[in-house]
Design a protein that fits this description.
By secondary structure, the protein is α/β, with parallel strands linked by helices. The protein is about 35% helix and about 25% strand. It has a single domain, classed as Rossmann fold, CATH 3.40.50. The strands form two sheets. The chain has a five-stranded mixed beta sheet, with helices on one face. Strand 5 and strand 6 form a beta hairpin. The chain starts with a helix and ends in a 5-residue tail after the last helix.
């Protein structure tokens, strides 16, 4: 028979599921792209809770007011770049920087479902809020032909 104390402690010994924050630029929000993102995450994230940035914030000011508290509740960040240009927006960059400041893992999730750690990535600053950084891999950087 369960005691009142048993009921109070139920589930406390079980490990909490890892919470993954799924970040992507606003440019990634069209339905056909977001369906693809959700499909990839469902395939590769088996024993974790996915928290999608899309839908969490009602405006830019709402994002700026809340994103840190949302990220504080998450254990890792996975982000997507635009499929063709491999860019992220300024908000996605804010999220990445904040998670790194907190000492939490950050991963690029490629469109093939491969996770690349932040330390294996290169970032090139661009000029637009929607295209704030171009993201590449160290491997791409070292395999490029030298300019003549």
């Amino acid at each position: 028979m369960l005691t009142q104390e048993d009921v109070k402690t139920m589930g406390q010994s079980e490990k909490r599921k890892t919470r993954l924050y799924i970040a992507s630029s606003v440019a990634m929000y069209p339905p056909h792209l977001y369906v693809r993102i959700r499909s990839i995450i469902t395939r590769i994230v088996l024993d974790a809770e996915a928290v999608y940035a899309k839908g969490l914030y009602s405006s830019q000011s709402d994002f700026l007011a809340k994103y840190k508290s949302e990220l504080n509740e998450c254990d890792e960040l996975l982000f997507f770049t635009t499929p063709d240009e491999h860019t992220i927006g300024r908000g996605c960059w804010f999220e990445i920087e904040y998670m790194l400041e907190q000492g939490k893992p950050v991963w690029l999730c490629t469109w093939d479902g491969v996770l690349v750690p932040y330390t294996d990535l290169t970032f090139t600053q661009l000029c637009s809020y929607r295209e704030w950084m171009r993201v590449g891999t160290q491997e791409e950087m070292y395999n490029e032909e030298p300019a003549l």
